[in-house]
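Because discrete structure vocabularies remain unfamiliar, we first show an illustrative case, written as a sequence plus integers encoding its fold.
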Amino acid sequence: MSVWKPNVTVAAVIRRDDRFLLVEEETSDGIRLNNPAGHLERGESLTEAVVREALEETAHDFVPTGLLGTYMSIGARGGEEVTWLRFAFTGELGAFHADRRLDDGILRTVWLTLDEVKAAEAEGRLRSPLIVRCLEDSLKRASLPLDAIYTHESVWRS
């Protein structure tokens, strides 16, 4: 009997004027678009994870300013059903590190309007079914303050 456990991910929702920063990445299903996003790793808080993932995938610093929300979906990976639990953060894009290589599989960053992202969704080019909802939510409601997230000190103990 297998144990069910969701895969915890973090995502950065970064907006400049009417465009959102996304990454184009190679996946087992082909080239897909996603928020700068990735898995929570042992020994880090959710905010530390989103800062790390944004840097790894965009070569930019990311300063989270709020928790946009938590999102859940079910999909497939390697023929197995997977539950994704996404913590999406709003924030500010910081310094660009030109000497930094993007994570393996990340081809480039792109700035797209919500309509362009929805068109990509209609074409099956999004990595996650949660992307459009996160972008829409960022336009229609305020994020929670970061102190709404509590990380116990035991997370950083070896």
Q: What stands out?
A: The CA atoms of residues 52 and 88 lie 14 Å apart. The beta strands are 7-13, 15-16, 19-27, 30-34, 37-39, 60-77, 80-96, 106-112. The helical segments are 46-58, 114-122, 131-140. The chain has a mean pLDDT of 95.
